[in-house]
């Protein structure tokens, strides 16, 4: 060849981004969602794939769904602005961390309450321009984008929210609360609101209530009246007096229900309600918990997530702690907790951060 050397064949380097979408979905679905916030930084295409419905359909098909934790804070120095975070795996170590969720359509309401149904977080009511609001905003947990949903019939503030059978029950918080508007229910399937009748004048008084789904129904407690009612076969009935006496705290988030067992955080310990003995019992195995100013208990895929705030004395610093506790029901009737991990997941030099709500869903 006239002494000329043949130019070597240059092979084209293959990268994962050259794969078709269906193969990428199959690969990404097998990775824990805790890594998705970091993976979304790889490229615009990755970010789009990680937010797609098709990816989560693949995760479901492969049996790779997992629990995802979301945490909401209020910033008192910024017009009571709410900020949402999600738990993810740190990019440089094995620690889990909270990362902020940024969205151009972030809801403007402050002091709203929230509920989670499937892959959607509903931010309901609150204050908008210093006025009570009836607005409802929904965050898609796949893409972390917000959209509007039908508004409530009545504007509400400091209301209580719980979910039962795919419906969101919103209680109290009206300026002119009466027996006709004390509660309204949102059907997430039909996207419609309707009022629900008050169970008894005995529970009526004030505007603040607490509500929770327990034993396959809705329990409602009046803060003004020492009484709790439950919805039973379409009618309201008075609840067990023992659970009524033990159900009081400045924040409903000190409570959660896991596999039909009611848990509460009180005086540095977690207790569960024994419905047979009709008394509150200490959750064994995790008796000595750290003392925090505000605690949220969350049903985290059958385990318990404990999210709490520690304000560092003498410093402008707040530490957000998170613990994951496995629950074990023993043949003796006892319930034990096993601490799987406990760590600081977020630090800030802004002590105006107030923990408002922690929620979890399986996607």
TrEMBL record:
Pfam families: F-box (PF00646), Kelch_FKB95 (PF25210). Residues 13-59 form the F-box domain. PANTHER family: F-BOX/KELCH-REPEAT PROTEIN SKIP4, GALACTOSE OXIDASE_KELCH REPEAT SUPERFAMILY PROTEIN. This is F-box domain. It comes from Arabidopsis suecica.
